Amino acid sequence: MPDEFFSLKGQIAIVTGGGQGIGEGIARRLHTAGARVAILDLNETTAESVAQSIDGLAVQCDVSSAESVRQAVSSVERNLGAISILVNNAGISGKAAYLWELDEQEIDRVYAINLRGVYLMCQAVVKSMLEKRYGRILNVASIAGKEGNPRLLSYSSTKAGVICLSKSLAKEVAGRGDITVNSIAPAVVQTHILDTIPKETVDYMVSRIPIGRTGKIEEIAALVHYLVSAEASFTTGQCYDISGGRATY
Ligand SMILES: NC(=O)c1ccc[n+]([C@@H]2O[C@H](COP(=O)([O-])OP(=O)(O)OC[C@H]3O[C@@H](n4cnc5c(N)ncnc54)[C@H](O)[C@@H]3O)[C@@H](O)[C@H]2O)c1
Fold it and tell me: Measured in angstroms, how far is the CA atom of residue 177 from the centroid of ligand 1?
């Protein structure tokens, strides 16, 4: 890729949940484009191994904890400098079950990581983006947040929340410099998150994808790269489909 197109040279990026799966793919792609990347993950070991391989920074962080988020963000600022790119990717599917089979602690846990985690991270970085009048925030939602998958009610509703949180924040920061906030809605991608979902639920999701296959991590990372680049300056508050044609709106 020529340097001048979509270069992220000189940029400092955070990728939450970057220790494996889609987050790891995004971290590697942003690094290849020139960014210094901080991996914030609950799992210190995987975060460290990805960070080492891309000359990045690993920070152990639980995105659902305000204190953990504050400490992690200040560690990135101290070690790498001001954050210009935030990718909120950390998420869990929760237990696949009908609403009446779930206890509230299980539902609350999915909400805490998938939704509270996103607003806490946004809060922790957006003030400095406003001061610098530049920033890119990209939140990983899901097609589940548009369609509502059965037996994944908590997951689907948190992802709907992420889509709308992104739209609201985009409008709050619009016109205060070049700061954009977008989300993406991938359909099924082959990662470890699928180990926690029963095969019949995964088959149901894949059967609804017209292209007829799961998405690839690299395909997601490419879209994220564009959306966090300086070039994507007239695009904000949008939810980008990357669902093999599943999305109808
Ligand atoms: N794989 C899919 O089919 C798919 C489809 C649509 C959207 N997504 C979304 O993409 C994102 C990444 O999913 P994945 O498939 O790569 O999952 P994954 O399970 O492979 O990776 C998730 C990462 O998040 C980290 N994490 C979990 N809880 C955390 C917490 N509290 N604080 C910090 N880090 C935490 C994990 O340690 C892990 O490294 C998620 O938000 C997921 O909802 C995935």
Answer: 30
